[in-house]
Amino acid sequence: MNLTELEQTLVLIKPDALKNSLTGYVLSQLSEFHTALRFAGAKIVQVSQMLAEEHYAEHRGKGFYPSLIEYIRGNVHYPNEPDKRRVVAFVYQGPGAIQKIRDIAGPTNPHNARDNKPGCIRALGTIVPIKDEAGNFLGDRMDNLIHASANLGDAEREIKLWFRPVDIPPLMRLYATVKCQEHYYLKNNQLLTSYEQGSLLLVAPGDIVWQSDLEALQLLHKGLPSPCSIQTVAAKYLINESTEND
Ligand code: AMP
């Protein structure tokens, strides 16, 4: 099978879609019947601060960034119900997966979506003004129900951020994997290869991991420059590990 057949994209059902009970609607719109795409992975994720910041790294520093992080973590839609704060993450696979899903999702801005593509998923979204504590207008947050990867590079980065290889059936995996030979732990944003009190296990010998993650861990442990940070690797291996509302 060629790579075009295996193309993958990340879809996140965001907290506003969950709050408004639109999950079934979204999944129907994206179904194999409509798109000829198949699920390669699915999981419910309580989004940590680290994962949210990694996912939206390209927006760091922008006016809407803090509000965007609160939104994807579910703090906006479930302010008093931390147990309901989650997103549903999917990997869809098949020819043209990225563009097909983006077409059905529609424009990022829900107002544009309603004006230019009635019937798309994001036409059901909302724009929320962001204000500082004094009530001054800072910008808009776009509550647009789903995330969909923008291109092949983003899809690879995002799928590897949200999914471990073992979340995806072996014959559906698109990116190289390896069997880990070492322990790696995280403590105070430092990488360790042996356990210390308070450290969190990221990977252990025998674990199947993305090859790029293991290469990054090996470089970072030697103090060498790496294509991605400790947080980028750690965010995924710690998904749903902690009950803390960090
Ligand atoms: P993108 O990386 O373009 O998929 O954007 C990720 C999310 O950030 C979008 O789904 C919006 O919720 C939000 N976003 C992107 N651009 C803006 C913007 N200019 N103003 C407000 N929110 C935005």
Short descriptors:
single chain; 246 residues; alpha+beta; Alpha-Beta Plaits; 2 domains; four-stranded antiparallel sheet; three-stranded antiparallel sheet; 11 helices; 11 strands; 22% strand; binds adenosine monophosphate
Describe, in short, the structure shown.
With 246 residues, the protein is an alpha+beta fold. Helices cover 33% and strands 22% of the residues.
Notes on the structure:
There is one protein chain. This protein is of the alpha+beta class. It folds into two domains: 3-172, Alpha-Beta Plaits (2-Layer Sandwich); 177-237, no CATH class. It is 33% helix and 22% strand. It is built from eleven helices and eleven strands. The chain has helices spanning 3-6, 15-19, 23-29, 32-35, 49-55, 65-72, 97-105, 110-116, 152-162, 211-221, 230-237, and strands spanning 8-13, 38-45, 87-93, 126-131, 137-143, 146-148, 177-179, 184-187, 190-192, 200-203, 208-210. It has a four-stranded antiparallel sheet with strand order 2-3-1-6. A three-stranded antiparallel sheet has the order 9-8-10, covered by helices on one side. A hairpin with a 5-residue loop joins β4 and β5. The longest helix is centred in the middle third of the chain and has 11 residues, at 152-162. Bound molecules: adenosine monophosphate (AMP). Adenosine monophosphate is lined by residues 59, 64, 68, 108, 140-142, 144, 147.
Q: Specify the overall morphology.
A: globular
The whole-angstrom Rg is 19 Å
CATH topology of the largest domain: Alpha-Beta Plaits
What percentage of amino acids are in beta strands? 15-25%
- Name of the CATH first level of the largest domain: Alpha Beta
The CATH superfamily title of the largest domain: Nucleoside diphosphate kinase-like domain
Structural class: alpha+beta
Largest sheet: 4 strands, antiparallel
Number of helices: 11
Main β-sheet, spatial strand arrangement? 2-3-1-6
**Share of helix among residues?**
25-40%
Count of domain modules: 2
Note the run of SSEs as H and E: HEHHHEHHEHHEEEHEEEEEHH
